[in-house]
């Protein structure tokens, strides 16, 4: 597995994390990644009505903001939530966002 | 005072709110507005090294996402945080964001 570049824990800042979460598709991808901590890009995006190129961009934004780790595994891209790094840098941030995102998900029209 | 248009409480959704907060300048403006619930655009932006046109755009994004109310009062634009609306729609969301934003503010380089 070849890990893709990502920011170090100590360089994570709040605004890029909120920006990364500030899109309905990315918010849904993060919710799914947190629910399935060992998965792949394609499995997590299953059923979303979004072009592949847009999804690739979304995953990059999430990785560069520090929300997820990604690694290339043959033909798959594996996704791992950076839950520990985020809890360390931004304690108490993600739980309400994931909870509120879950409450909205049925009405989001993403599927 | 002439109020500027804003989304109704019941139409507020999470992603635009996070997007609005996902910029260091807007995050700082929101922090200041919450600290001074009756203020003006110019007073809240005091000292920020940002062009006026950029600030105008930031205030619009914050208003359209539902974070603030704005009204025209002669030559001033008055700003009021929509704290009750946000607490109603997104309970538990804003407190950690404002707290974490405050912790980062001294290093933000905005001033």
UniProtKB/TrEMBL annotation, chains A, B:
It comes from the Bacteria. Coiled coil: none annotated. InterPro entries: ArsR-like_HTH, HTH_ArsR_DNA-bd_dom, WH-like_DNA-bd_sf, WH_DNA-bd_sf. Pfam families: HTH_20. SUPFAM superfamilies: Winged helix' DNA-binding domain. Residues 6-101 form the HTH arsR-type domain. PROSITE patterns: HTH_ARSR_2. Gene3D superfamilies: Winged helix-like DNA-binding domain superfamily/Winged helix DNA-binding domain. This is ArsR/SmtB family transcription factor. It comes from Actinomadura yumaensis.
